[in-house]
Design goal:
The protein has 577 residues and is α+β, with helices and mostly antiparallel strands. It has 14 helices and 19 strands.
């Protein structure tokens, strides 16, 4: 088994498509976020921050929702008696039934290689991003283990601000060396990292403003939210929209803390001067929430402008030629995504509502507009007549196995009939009936439901068009994930609590794989049997063109017992089945 085969399942294909969809989804979210931020003035820092943060989480939810929709596997729906109509009303509709053609699919042995390549590349990228984050966390916690500040004046200033901001948790103040700026980290036991130069190079007013900014992060639990943002950016590392939205959220977060600090100090000019002076001397921590934000000059100037003029609306964001090119690229991909998404929606609609279900929907509408329901006659019979054809309009070359399923009252009956090659005329009990078609060289089909409540009725003009289906695989393994060779896999279409029969079954090869050469996208019921293994309960699965159905069998354990007669004497030569 090669590496690409592990990622050939339809779930991985749908995940890759969902990740690609986030490119155009992110572009739309960026556009809406830009409009929202331009509409709100800098005075509404918290609203701007919540909108930006919601936009980043929305992008992740959009991707997960897309994956869920693409990977949706609907069960076969069975109509209830209340949804049926009289046979005379259904007959004109059923007479035009032709199962929709199934698209030519890729064989299961030849999965799309580019999907596997993208899936592997995405996993590698996520792994690298998480490794980088883990390394940064280790570096940050090493800083947090530094020597604690014992300056009573500084400790008293921190405690006073903690009480003013109503921060319940105790705060450790750690002295750091180098050019890193003040920052906070930690959730349960938060730490405030202060460079030694900061404690000796600022006036008491400036120091109080900076400490107020950092404690505001602790009060707002920004460290936890920042970790969630990093997780989203790791998952969507390839998406520029995720990074752009994340940066906007961090800018708005710093503005919120600036507003709290200025509100406590009451000196916006002094605070802005301190912000500008220290921005040239420090660098941001990788994971800690730093006083200077991301350290970019444009961001710092914007923060100073918002502190001094809180009623203004932030100006338009500057964008380089590289950004313009990136937007054009993302826009092109967005158009492709819209086109592909439309096709996916059509395909999904076909999955959710099959041709037979569309007939059922029409029948239900007719039933709702018709007269009162009439219970079917008990013990009566109905005749179903029609023809069976290949896609080219010719009759099949081999007889096709048929069976009928009829639901009457609280019971359901299954009956096999003689194989049919051209026209058929079948008698079934009154009630709700389905025809199960199991050709050797075409896909299984379930035709119906047909409702007949009066004995002697005839439903005529049923046209059944066989479809080739698509190849699908079933892999059988034991409880240790080892392949089970020679297992017999039997299957049929699920209907009304049971499933149809007619196919002799498929046998697994030495790799534990059985090939279904003509499968259909309907809910199948499977049973397994193999020497030395327990017979499991029936398992329901829906085949896919490029996927593999995984089934498991457990080894049987030797069991000893005694067969005795009514007098308790052993019976020799008895056979147990």
């Amino acid at each position: 088994m090669n590496l690409f085969h592990l990622f050939s399942d339809s779930t991985w294909r749908h995940l890759v498509f969902a990740l690609l969809h986030t490119l155009w989804q992110g572009s739309l979210i960026v556009l809406m976020l830009t409009i929202a931020l331009r509409a709100l003035s800098a005075r509404h820092q918290n609203a701007r921050y919540r909108i930006a943060l919601a936009a980043q989480f929305t992008l992740l939810v959009a991707g997960l929702t897309t994956w869920s929709v693409l990977d949706y596997r609907p069960p076969v729906r069975v109509a209830t008696p209340a949804q049926q109509v009289k046979a005379t009303e259904v007959a004109p509709v059923v007479a035009t039934i032709e199962m929709g053609s199934i698209k030519e699919s890729v064989p299961a042995s030849e999965p799309m290689p580019w999907v596997s390549v993208l899936a592997i590349g995405w996993l590698i990228g996520v792994g690298l991003m998480l490794t980088r984050t883990t390394g940064s966390l280790i570096a940050v916690h090493r800083l947090a283990k530094g020597s604690r500040v014992d300056d009573p004046i500084l400790i008293e200033a921190v405690e006073r601000l903690r009480r003013e901001l109503r921060v319940e948790r105790s705060i450790r103040v750690i002295a750091t060396e180098g050019g890193s700026g003040p920052a906070v980290m930690g959730v349960v036991w938060p730490s405030l990292l202060l460079p030694v130069a900061l404690m000796t190079g600022l006036s008491p007013e400036s120091l109080r403003a900076i400490l107020a900014h950092e404690l505001a992060h602790i009060r707002r639990n920004d460290y936890v939210i920042n970790l969630f943002q990093i997780a989203i950016e790791s998952i969507l590392f390839f998406n520029p929209a995720a990074w752009w939205i994340g940066r906007q959220a961090r800018i708005e977060r710093e503005a919120c803390c600036d507003a709290i600090a200025v509100g406590l100090t009451g000196h916006p000019i002094e605070y802005s001067r301190s912000l500008a002076d220290w921005a040239e001397k420090i660098r941001p921590h990788p994971l800690g929430l730093a006083w200077d934000g991301d350290g970019r000059q444009s961001t710092l100037l914007e923060r100073i402008r918002r502190v001094l003029r809180p009623g203004d609306r932030p100006g338009a964001l500057a964008i380089s030629w590289t950004g313009v090119g990136l937007l054009l690229l993302v826009g092109s991909m967005m158009l492709y995504g819209l086109w592909w998404g439309t096709n996916s929606a059509v395909d999904l609609a076909a999955r959710v509502l099959s041709p037979a279900e569309r007939v059922e929907r029409i029948a239900r509408i007719q039933s709702e507009s018709g007269g009162p329901e009439v219970e079917p006659e008990v013990g009566g019979t109905v005749t179903l007549r029609g023809t069976i054809r290949l896609p080219n309009g010719q009759p099949p070359s081999k007889p096709v196995a048929f069976s009928t399923i009829t639901k009457a009252g609280n019971g359901t009956s299954f009956a096999s009939v003689n194989p049919v090659k051209d026209a058929f005329s079948l008698k079934v009990p009154t009630g709700i009936s389905w025809l199960s078609v199991a050709p050797e060289d075409h896909a299984m089909m379930l035709i119906g439901p047909f409702t007949a409540k009066n004995s002697g009725e005839i439903i005529d003009g049923i046209k059944i068009v066989l479809e080739p289906g698509f190849p699908s695989r079933v892999r059988v393994t034991d409880e240790q994930a080892k392949p089970v060779a020679g297992a017999l896999v039997r299957g049929g279409l699920v209907v009304d609590g049971g499933w149809t029969s007619g196919h002799p079954g498929w046998t697994t090869d030495r790799d534990g794989v059985a090939l279904l050469p003509h499968a259909s996208r309907n809910l199948y019921g499977f049973t397994l049997s193999a020497p030395g293994f327990q017979v499991p309960k029936s398992i329901e699965r829906t085949p896919t063109e490029d996927g593999t159905i995984e089934l498991t069998m457990n080894h049987a354990h030797p069991t000893r017992g005694v067969v005795a007669d009514l007098d308790g004497k052993p019976v020799a030569g008895a056979t147990l089945r």
